[in-house]
Amino acid sequence: MSPALATTAGAVTPDADALVHRADLMLCLAQAFLPPPAEWSVCDWGQPLVEDLRELGQALALDVSSVCTAVVDAYRLWVEHATPESTADVWLVEYARLFLVPPVPVALNTSAYLEGALAGSSTQMIASCYGVAGFEPSGHLHDLPDHVAMQLEFLGKLYERAARGDADALGMAEEFIEEFLVAWIGPLCQACQVAAGRAPSAQVYYELAVLLKHAVGR
Fold first, then answer.
1. What is the pLDDT of residues 195-210, one digit of tens each?
2. Cis peptide before 36 (omega within 30 of 0)
3. pTM (predicted TM-score)
4. CATH number reported for the structural domain that contains residue 27 in this entry
5. Which helix (H) or strand (E) holds 76?
6. Quick check: helix, strand or coil at residue 109?
7. How far apart are CA 84 and CA 159, in angstroms?
């Protein structure tokens, strides 16, 4: 991917404030797809997420109500299981059931959707995009370059650069979305939706994936 890409011909370049909001949304969603701290309940994890998404939804004219409802429902289920006789699982346990414990119901390494296997050519292509842009992952995640959270962090950083006037960064973000996110976001939504039939917590991630789909589709 060329580092000197321009915005699509005829398109209106977003103003700096809109780009900052885009950056914040991508970074917020990147955090949401990272493993949560080991001791956090769904409330600890979900409350700040909902607050951030409500603010960003208003700024970007995005409907975030389904995500908020899913988090509230997950919190209600957590309260119901937190009886005096038992302790409800922390959110990391729910996350692990979905994304980490084999057989993994939902893959967060997107080559699984693009190629049906881990560490395929798309993973190397994504890593190459990072290198062209000079992107260094934050270090919160030690995984392959095609992890959903890492790709969203990359987009967030590109939008931050675009907000500072870097037109090349905006073009790179748009092309990255077209080449990669558009291809895997539908299968990710579907995988989360199927998993929600067995693990209610997957509904939260399904709604997050749908929100991402709407955001990049615009």
1. 998 887 899 999 999 9
2. no
3. 0.90
4. 1.10.3480.10
5. helix 65-81
6. strand
7. 47
